[in-house]
Amino acid sequence: MEYSEVQKIAKDTIEYIKNVLHADMKLTDVRRLCEEKMLALGADSFWYWDVGAFVFSGDETTVSVSGREYVTSDRLIAADDIITIDLSPQCGNIWGDYARTIILENGGVVEDINSIRNSEWRNGLLMEEELHAELLRFAVPQTTFEELDFHINQLITERGFINLDFLGNLGHSIVKDKNDRIYTEKGNMALLSSVGYFTFEPHISVKDSKYGYKKENIYYFADGTLKELYFQKFNVILFLFYIFIRN
């Protein structure tokens, strides 16, 4: 299985859970459903401390904690609520890593960020979009992890936000063993292009707020340009057709 296929398992699981989230649902049930869905879609395990889905809601969304210490609370989702889900599927030591903050208003998921009525939540998710767009604009193969860390954290501060990550970093390399990861952090002079894939997952809030926001994708360089990792079914079909007509 390719990295894009495992990442698609995580993406499809987020789309699935959006359709079943509802008020009065326990976070423990959200985690269970996400993990069951990833296994059904082809994951064989979960690479981050065997936790497939980190799930937080409300004022828990500011919490940043290692997987070895994480415990899913049994709190209930409210009709107007903010939920962050961070997924870690694995298949044969190939990782996926994908997170989204989801907004419920009047008991339903709000898909369009600009349609979120709660201005604080809307602004937080718009800031996540800005950070990911800035990553794509700023990063080149010669950019170091430290340079990216400095640039993005400076932007976070300039926009009036704070970095919530418990280690202060913004992401990590995708490897076979979690202990081999290198991070987007001060002092890491490795080039972004020196790794096959890396995550970008700013976990942000504003000072003294109860709410946090997270968006995580996997990125890689192709022909000198940074791209988001995603599964291109259409291209696979074209490739198979090409092989067929050649033979």
Which features would summarize this protein structure in a list?
single chain; alpha+beta; Creatine Amidinohydrolase; four-stranded antiparallel sheet; 13 strands; globular
Write a short abstract of this structure:
The chain has one domain: Alpha-Beta Complex (Creatine Amidinohydrolase), CATH 3.90.230.
What does this structure look like?
By secondary structure, this protein is of the alpha+beta class. Helices cover 32% and strands 20% of the residues. It contains 5 helices and 13 strands. It has helices at 3-20, 27-40, 119-138, 145-158, 233-246, and strands at 45-46, 53-57, 81-87, 89-91, 94-95, 98-105, 108-109, 162-163, 198-200, 203-205, 213-214, 217-222, 225-228. The chain has a 4-stranded antiparallel β-sheet with strand order 2-3-6-7. The chain has a 3-stranded antiparallel β-sheet with strand order 1-4-5. A hairpin with a 2-residue loop joins β4 and β5. α1 (3-20) crosses α2 (27-40). The protein is globular, with a radius of gyration of 18 Å.
